[in-house]
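Posting here for the record, re: flavin mononucleotide.
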Amino acid sequence: MRDGDRVRELFGIDAPIVLAPFGGLSAVELTAAVSELGGLGSYGLYGYEPERIAETVRAIRAATPRPFALNLWLPMGDEIDPQHAEWDAAMAVVAPFFHELGVDVPPLPARFLPDIAEQVDAVIAARPAALSVVFGVPSPELVERVHAAGIRVVGTATTVDEAVALEAGGVDAVVATGAEAAGHRVSFLHRAEDSLVGGLALIPQVADAVSVPVIAAGGIADRRGVAAAFALDAEGVQVGTAFLHTRQSAANAAHRDAIARTPAHGTVLTRAMSGRLARGLPTARSARSRRAPRSPRSRRRTGSPAASVRRPAAANGGPPVAVARAIGTLATATEAAEVFRELLGGVPGIR
Ligand SMILES: Cc1cc2nc3c(=O)[nH]c(=O)nc-3n(C[C@H](O)[C@H](O)[C@H](O)COP(=O)(O)O)c2cc1C
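Prediction output follows.
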């Protein structure tokens, strides 16, 4: 069994516990809370324009002087900018959900996603302790520029070969995310459906295959999960859903309630959220999309409209909300400090 020293040293933190980034649902309060507690708070920047990145980092820094991480989605090349006809057709499908909730159907946005190069520039200017990325291996130029700014780079793997590719690409640590994890399956070498390895098998194999520290993610919600991850040779853990359930998170009451109520078998893998495979709660929309014939067009990322409907629609009917499959009744704490203390109990060498 390894300890968490390398992860603590890498990020300058006290405990090898990482708050998961939540693209579209991160909260300054929760990120700062986990960093203040001695872990690494992360903030998901999916869809954030550079000005919003700078503003968010100012808010995190106003709340804590401690290290934190920022998270970006790398482009995969399947992103498309729908034009009016496609947009109208897509909106026609979801319009009833907007109407039901009294929310305006959004107009075609000027652009769907910010430019990744502009986002990276903003992250470098912000100088977080770490930049974590999903959906690929960062380019050598990106790694070099980020390292030159004194920022650590963390990649995310769903399979052993993805972890090996990330290490070859120069990352400082690899998040090994098991099939239990909530949110998108961030696979990039094989189809996401063919990369659903559970954490129990994934973590030790990744630890054997790479020399950089492995941070285990997916279904970890209490000291037993943390202890198991370390027993499998992880050197840190990344925890999402258990923190998403707390008062400090940006999840609304219906979402938090759904997290606590959903049994371990209660989530689905669906493409209804964005076109890419993700784990979330079943809703009327995901059920409908499972029945609908698949088309290449469904690989569209929805960007801001999905985010705009997520909060009011969390109870039912709208896009599925992301929660972990495996944690079921383990997500009960409502204070970030309570979750953190519990997780700390599983870190080797900490009493
Ligand atoms: C609402 C939501 C949004 C997420 N967005 C991101 C993201 O933008 N980037 C990322 O690296 N991981 C994202 N994740 C995955 C988490 O970082 C983490 O790996 C996962 O939540 C771990 O599984 P757990 O929820 O079982 O703890 C997201 C998870 C959730 C629940």
